[in-house]
Fold:
Amino acid sequence: MSSGNGHGQGAHIAPVGMYVGIFLALMVLTIVTYLVTWVDLGIFNLAVAMVIAITKASLVILFFMHVWWSPKIIKVSVGMSFFFLIIMLMMVMTDYLSRPTRGLPPFPNAVATGTDSVGNDHPAKVLPAGEGEHH
Structure:
């Protein structure tokens, strides 16, 4: 029997196994994200992290939010949202890259290895307590 909304179709019911598979994929990608932070990929650290994050977000949007089975107008709306997000991020990066003080934050183990996030060798400078502070 129709629900009276004029569409003549009910909500999509996905199998539980699919949700478990997506959940496990998200957990594996979360572990990979953590493990990648300990590998110095130079300028590619951010790119790899973003690819993993976009993959995880896509899984959530497509399957947990049921966009995969939604009408075409919903898919177009989601696609346009990503399109405008990319435009916004490009504008932010244009501003960021135009600044003379830009730079990557130090790699988590830079102090231990004596290198910065792009592989330049330099000894880590450790100042005694109280030194280097300006009052």
Notes: Confidence is low (pLDDT under 50) at residues 1-8. The chain is about 55% helix and 0% strand.
